[in-house]
Structures are given as structure tokens and as C-alpha cells.
Amino acid sequence: MDHQPNHQLPDPGRILVAHIAIATPVNRLFEYLLPDRPPTSSLTGRLAGRRVTVPFGHQKKRIGLIVRVTDHSSHPVNKLKSIIDVLDTRPIVPEITLELLEWASGYYHHPIGDAIMQSLPPPVKKGTALMLPPVPTVWQATPEQQGKPGANAKRQQALLALLVRNKGGLSPDEVKHHGFTLANLKALEKKGLATQREVTHPGIQTGTQTVLREEQKEALTQITKKAGRFSIFLLQGVTGSGKTEVYIELAHEACRANQQILILLPEINLTPQTLARFQRHLPARTLCQHHSSLNDTEKIQAWASVLENRSAILIGTRSALFYPFDKLRYIIVDEEHDTSYKQQDGFRYSARDLATVLGKKHACPVILGSATPSLESLHNVRQKKFSHLFLKHRHGNASQPEVTLVSTRTGQINHGLTRELVTRIRQHLDRGNQVLVFINRRGYSPAYLCHDCGWIAGCHHCDSRLTLYKSRHQLRCNHCDTTYRLDRFCPNCKSLNLHPGGEGTEKVEETLQSLFDPVPVIRVDRDSTSRKRAMQSIHDRIHTGKPCILVGTQMLAKGHDFPNLTLVGILSSDDGLFSSDFRASEKVAQLVIQVAGRAGRADKKGEVIIQTAQPDHPLIQQVSQLDYDAAATSLLAERSAFRLPPCTSMAIIKSDSDDNELSLHYLQTIKTHLLSATRQSTPSDIVGPFPPAIQRKANRYRNLLVIQHTSRNQVQHYLHQLDSFLSTNKIAGKVKLLIDVDPLDMG
Fold it and tell me: What is the pLDDT of residues 294-347, one digit of tens each?
């Protein structure tokens, strides 16, 4: 791949070659001559970062992005095709973003063209013209000239009277609603009787300052001192300690400096409430959001707003990282421990890790916030790569919730609910409070089985059990989404003795409804929030403060603030304690402490009931004391002893085929080649091939080869050897090969 610097247009007589990113599985840029129309001389400024249409293969046209322009080609110039059209009058992707994407393509070993094109929002990728959102405005009567129009201007008189009565101003739509036109407004404006001004979010006082506690002020001071310089801060604050208030003050500071700030969130469902909190303190026009539920117009407008510096603050999910920032002052990654920041298919990048690379390129501080930091971030603190800031106290001096362990080995259990938990739920509801019951399993039951012969319903296409969805009267595979009819007879022994096994959110919801009717029971999982604005509707119901019971998965563990919620019951705390995934214990500790942190805010004392079959397990003991630091210290010691990340670097090579033997054989061939072709290699550097916990998904057999080393550079060296091997050795058509660098999922 050519790494010559970007060029502006040279002398008209020179031949110019554009190196263009096109979404293909081939890891290279494609070379084209600049178009004759429009004439090259009419294109001014930097060409890199502009979208183009080009002829490509058997397709008539493809859209790509110019990455650089040079005066040389790796092919004979007379063999090059010309660009059909340049779609943009100016670059829409800055040079820094292109540098970031080229670096990421190399580090994650993903085709450069696909990485660049996948970073663009769908309408931008399709070539849709950019457009800015309209600036919100209101019309007001001018205070110094509230005289009357001429006697014959009846409409103007009525409109002026309307504006005088509404001193805060009326939007153009409100004026239209009262029967007046834009021409009427312009007539008053021409006479100096009315004026139009931009507005902030309705009811919001522009620039309202937050009130910070001393430890928040100290954290803010440490961060702002590094403005204009690259540095990484781990902001560790207990749940409810006010990390968001620190973020808001950083946004204020960025706006005052006429610069931009990026706030990354792990979940789409967190975006509306976070945006609302920022809108209470900052002008609406400085804010925009990015997530997959926006329509194409909203996505185009958000991209244009950041590109034109209209929006100083972007709040968004993972891919907001690739927006066209010009003056980035701070980057914030909230809930930095969340695995949602790692893309699990296609371009497998980590937004958290790339945020630090982007911060270095922009020479700005990067703030990683969490109540339960990832072991990677804590390891980097130990290595003196990150600065560690703490928020140890909850807002309003609220105390930490009281935690009780309840053993599920003995005593009566009603569909996953112990007698102790049911009693405490009733007490909290009687006090007018809200309750959260956490179970990290969707559906009605995770299994459907025959009590006579032991048959368990399994997917025909995957090595997994089927989940019962009673509300839909069907069984479903949560891996390939295949659905099955709910039969009355066991297919093995023809018995009618078929029953659900275990509990999911639907079953717990049903049980709680029967126990606590008429108290509303609100289920929050991926199924109940799939419709647009469903999560916002649920939030609105909860924030009425009326007594209710929430039943939810890990979606409820992430950053939500429910002021009237005083009891949390955790049903599935043991999940992951004995998993084959070495990261499972870390996830258990983070999830339990995050969920527990939803209980009790301000003047209301919180309580947490943790149901467990392993009450004496060291990790359960640590999380029951809400002592994440102790849990993390123990887990880091284990990782170090077993040479696991973050104490080592790791990459996984995954093969995927409908022929298991071929899948294994191909990985073994790769392993043999890497060990023989790589300098200073040892057999312990490469483990496998071996199958993951669920080997067959959608009738494809998956196997893994794990590269592991104390040196990140050595892992990359192995992967570069793999790239060379693949460039000269064609993969069997039945085998699909994937590379996952810094994997979070061993599946």
C-alpha cells in the first residue's frame, strides 16, 4: 500500500493518480486518474477525503473515497481508468481521520478500503449530499420599537401583538400555527419591529454551571491542565459519584475554547438520557448525537454539523469515533470497561483503544470513565501509561447500598426468586419505591426438556440449546435466530411431560406479575426495546417515580439513573464463575457491582440482594462488599500467573467452514508456517487449533488458533507473516478466515 503524503493539486500538465478506498475484501487502495470533467483545474484544495464515483469491475459504478493523490502509479498509466465524478467540493473526511483508519487497518489486519468505507454512516457511504440541520430560531418583538405598523397593515398589527404577548418568542412553526406567514414576519423585521434569534433547547438556560464537589473539581483541574497535550486519564468513580458532571464541565471548557469534544457511550439506549443531561447545561445547537437508530437525514446532518464546526459536542456510540473533527479538545469514553466498544464482526476494532490513538493524533486528553475499570486500563495505570483519578463519594453524600448474600442452595425458591427477595420487594414497594430484578437471560426459559427421557430442545444448525419464548409460543436459537414450533410431544419418546428449564426475563416477569399485581412490572431486554423509542418510553414510565418492578438484563446495568429505585435483586450472579472464557470472572464482578449501584441515590438508602449458589466463592465475597479494587487485584494476579491479557498480547485466527476437518487442517497449516517463518518463535506462542465452546453455528464449524506473547510487536510480527502467507496461498473456497486482535470473545 502506498504511504506517500497527501498532495494538493500540482501543475495542470502533470498526471495525477488518485489512490481510492473502495469497500472490498482486497487489502489495497485502487488507482484512478483524476476526471476530465469537472476539469482538474476547477478542483481546489486537498483532494484526499472526498467521495468519488468510479468504474469498478463488472459493476457500472462504485463509490469510494480518495485517500491520497500522487504523480505516480504502480501500474502503467494507460491501463488506469478515470474517476467518473468527484462528489464533494471539499474534503468530508479530515487527514487525521484517514491516518487513524490506515493505522487501524494495519493493526487489526482488516482491508484498508473496507475499513475506511465502513467508518462512514450509511448515507455518507452511499454518496448522499451533506446538509446542515436548520438552526432553531424564534421571532420576537424588538423591545425598543414596539410601535404599531400602519393603520392598513391589519395582519402585521395582529402578528406584532402576538409577539408582544409571547415575550420568550415564537418559532416559525408556532407563528404559522397562528395563521401568519414568513412574509408577515419579514415585513415586521424590515420595519424594525421584530427580530429573529437563535435559541437553545426549550426551557434551558444557556451555559448553566454544574455544582461540583471538591474531588470532582480536583479531577477537572488535573484534566484541564493537560488540554492541548496528549494524555490518558482513568476516571474511576463509584456509581452515582458524578462522572457525568465532570464531563459536562469539560464540554463547557471545550466550547469556551471554541473547540470540540467527543463523548462515546457503549449503548444506543444511553444516548437520549445523556444528551438530555447535557442539554440542561449547554446550548442545543452545540450538541449532536450519533447512533444507528437515527434516520439518514439525521445522520447526514450530524456529520455535516461536526465537519463545519457547527456542533462542538458529539455524543454517540462506537463509530462516532470516526466523525470529521477539526478541533478536538477532549475525548471521553464513558463506561470504558464495556465490551460493546469492541466491534465483533467485520472491521473488529476497539473504539476505546482507538480513542487513545485519535487523542494522540489530535494532541488532546483522553478520559476513560468507569466505576469498574477494565483490567486492561488498570494494568496500564500500573505501567504508568495512564493517570488514575478517583471519585470515591456518591452525589449528595448518599451512602453505598447495603448488600446481603442469599444462598439458593437451601430454602424455598419460586421461579428463581427466594423467599427473602420476595419479602424485601414487598417492603420496598409498600414504601412507594421502585425495585430492579436483574437476570441476564432473555426469553422465558433457557431450556425446554422432557422429564421422562431427558431430551433437551437443541438447534438443528448450532451446537446450542433453544430458548423458550412463551409470549410468541416458539423456541428460538439465540445464535442463528432460527425459530421452531413449540410441540406438545417429545420428539424422542413421544411423552407429553415437556417443561421449561430455568428462568429468563419473561418467566421472572410473569412470576412477579402474579405475586405483586397490580404493581406494574416492566421488562427491559433486547426483545422489549427493539422498537424505536421503546427504551425512551420505558424511561418515561420509570421517571414518574411511581412504584414499579423492573426486570432486566445487562442493558439496565449501564449508566441509568433511577432516583426512586431502592432495591436491586440479582438472580444470576453465579453465571461466568466457572466459564471456559478467562474474562468471565471480570465480567461477573463488573456486572454485579454496576447493577448494585443502581440502588439508592441522594436521600434514599439502597439495598441489594445477591442470590447465589456459591456464597463462599472469593469473587462473590468481594463483590458483595462492593470492593471492585480487591476483585480486580486478584484477577490481575491470576492473569499474570497464567500469561493472559492484559499481561500479554493476544490475537485469534478463526476459521469458519461447513467442513470441520478442512477448517482444522487449514489452521494447522497456518500454525506450522508461522512457527517456521517467524523469527524468535516458540511453540508456546501459538495455541491450537481447537474448537470454541459452541463450535457449530448456522451449520458452520468454527476453530481457533491463538497467538499470545508478552510483546505486542511479536504478535503483530506473526500476523504480518500470516498476511504474507495469505497473499501467496489461496484459501480453500470453503474456509473463511478471520483475524481478531485483542479479542474479548473466545467464541
Answer: 888 888 888 988 998 888 899 999 999 999 998 899 999 999 999 999 999 899
Residues 368 and 467: their CA atoms lie apart, in Å, by 36
Number of domains in the chain: 5
Kindly give, in sequence order, each residue whose CB lies less than 8 Å from that of residue 367, ignoring residues fewer than 6 positions away: 223, 233, 235, 247, 250, 330, 331, 332, 333
- Judge contact between 412 and 530, C-beta under 8 A: no
Q: Which residues of 202-220 are buried (b: 16+ CB within 10 A; e: fewer)?
A: eebeeeeebebbebbeebb
User: Same domain for 374 and 403?
Assistant: no
What confidence tens digit (pLDDT) does each residue in 611-627 have?
998 899 999 999 999 99
pLDDT digits (tens, 9 = 90+) for 563-574: 788 999 999 788
- Phi and psi angles of residue 577, each rounded to the nearest 5 degrees, phi first: -65, -30
Would you state the cell numbers that stand for residue 467, as one nine-digit string? 430458548
DSSP string, 146-183: -----TT-HHHHHHHHHHHH-TT-B-HHHHHHTT--HH
The verdict on 563 and 580 lying in the same domain is yes
Neighbour tally for 99: CB within 10 Å:
15
Q: Kind and range of the H or E element at 635?
A: helix 628-641
pTM: 0.85
**128 contacts 330 by C-beta, under 8 angstroms:** no
Residues 10 and 24: beta-carbon distance below 8 Å: no
Beta bridge partners of 194: 141
- The residue whose grid cell reads 468513580 is 237
Close Cβ partners of 403 (under 8 Å, ≥ 6 residues apart): 596, 607, 608, 610, 624, 625, 626
Phi/psi of residue 392, nearest 5 degrees: -95, -10
Three cell numbers at 263? 463523548
Same domain, 290 and 329: yes
Q: What is the DSSP string of 199-236?
A: --STTPPTTPPP---HHHHHHHHHHHTTTTS-EEEEEE
**Residue located via cell numbers 435559541:** 199
Query: Is 70 within the bounds of a domain?
Result: yes
Whether residue 430 sits in one domain with residue 546: yes
Residue type, 145: Q
> How far is Cα 651 from Cα 201, in angstroms, rounded to an integer?
46
> Domain for residue 81, yes or no?
yes
